[in-house]
């Protein structure tokens, strides 16, 4: 992704992508399954969309712009103030924190994982997913990660595809893999992180393909 963007809010970034897609607000709201008023509030930064709503808005924009979901998220990250992530630009401290968390998970280092999350952090996984629900506090979050490894008989892996960060939001695009019934399965996810005081305080994880996610643990 070439170029350096001035930092923008989430609403401004989405508004720019809406304009590039040449979509009316009514059409974007319909495709995202929300009211036009709610969309206007998000685009004008009066409210912040949940991760699931943000995912539906981004999916609708990606389809109209003929972009892959990955390209859309990286483009949105650029509009939020990311300068050529991982390609020679300065790394935002929130990006560094999230990357450290994924590295710690890959190494099975629970102490390092605890170091990147706040004591009262909250981690959301869609309820449709295996082990889906809301996990509150370090004990539940690290317990979740341990359960993922146990359920996959130690084969669960997460590849960090890209991270885009601003002062307000950090988005991670990942590929999770696990061996099931002798075959390796994979799903792409996007996780939205909120960081305060140098710690992750809340995260929302959502698959880019719900059907593939449903089959992942089947």
Describe the model.
With 218 residues, the chain is an alpha+beta fold. It has two domains: 10-67, 434 Repressor (Amino-terminal Domain); 93-216, Roll (Nuclear Transport Factor 2, Chain: A). Helix content is 44%, strand content 26%. The chain is built from nine helices and six strands; from the N terminus they run αααααααββαββββα. It has helices spanning 10-21, 25-32, 36-43, 51-65, 69-79, 93-106, 110-116, 137-151, 210-216; strands at 117-125, 133-136, 157-165, 170-180, 183-196, 199-207. It has a six-stranded mixed β-sheet with strand order 2-1-6-5-4-3, with helices on both faces. The longest helix has 15 residues, at 51-65. The radius of gyration is 17 Å and the shape is globular. The N and C termini lie far apart (36 Å).
